[in-house]
Design goal:
The chain is globular and about 45 Å long. The longest helix has 27 residues. The protein has one domain. Strands 2-8-3-4-1-5-6-7 form an 8-stranded antiparallel beta sheet, sandwiched between helices. The protein is of the alpha+beta class and about 220 residues long.
């Protein structure tokens, strides 16, 4: 029986006890193969070594421990899914930093999502060095910025995401129900990250599900700090 919940395939990503823990970034690259993606993350120093997800996590964990955690996991694993390369940064957030995302997207297209359990989740979409649209999935999907902030609005509306200002609703103080607001916040909190990955799937046709982590990948260093 097929679930009617479009977020069901991605709800595992919200769980801090998931395979990726509570800090990670996933970036989808169109137009680059995995070796070239690793080369870009390493700033031309590495084309990657074949490994599996356990090896990727071991390297990222070791790097994080050695550096005190302030530079993320320092490691990326990349695999091919259809016409997209999928890059996984355990314990990392570099691919959604705007200067890094812009550089990674030269001559290609990149959508990157960061889950950060101790800071703020982020989504950024860039094409050939330009941030097209970006936002913070939990609090501000309606506060987008970039050269074309409304570029993905059609997909967002299909997922029931708020793409317009909430000011009109929040200005109705006489009718404001704080209990309803608390319930809505909890619902938004649980759905924010799955919504971001559902949006990525709309654009890329790649569903980032746990089985992807079973595939062989190329693993290399992240040179950005």
């Amino acid at each position: 029986m097929t679930s009617s919940d479009p977020l069901a395939p991605f709800r595992w990503l919200h769980d801090g006890d998931s395979l990726l823990d509570d800090i990670f970034t996933v970036a989808f690259f169109r137009g680059l193969d995995p070796s070239e993606v690793v080369r870009r993350f390493s700033r031309g120093e590495d084309h990657g070594q074949e490994s599996d997800f356990v090896g990727l996590m071991d390297q990222a964990t070791e790097f994080s421990i050695k550096t005190g955690g302030g530079y993320g996991g320092g490691t990326v694993g990349v695999l091919q899914v259809g016409e997209w390369s999928v890059a996984i940064e355990p314990i990392g957030w570099m691919a959604t930093l705007h200067d890094v995302l812009a550089e990674l997207s030269r001559d290609c297209e990149v959508l990157a999502i960061t889950r950060h359990g101790y800071a703020e989740d982020s989504l950024g979409y860039a094409i050939d060095g330009t941030i097209v649209t970006a936002y913070h999935p939990l609090h501000c999907p309606h506060l987008r910025y970039g050269s074309e902030p409304d570029r993905l609005n059609g997909f967002m509306r299909e997922l029931g995401m708020a793409v317009d200002s909430l000011d009109d609703e929040n200005d109705r103080d006489d009718e404001y129900d704080w209990e309803d607001e608390d319930e809505r916040y909890e619902s938004d909190y649980v759905s924010a990250l799955p919504n971001a990955f559902a949006l990525a799937a709309k654009l890329t046709q790649v569903r980032f599900i746990p089985e992807i982590l079973d595939r062989a990948m190329l693993v290399g260093p992240v040179a950005y700090r």
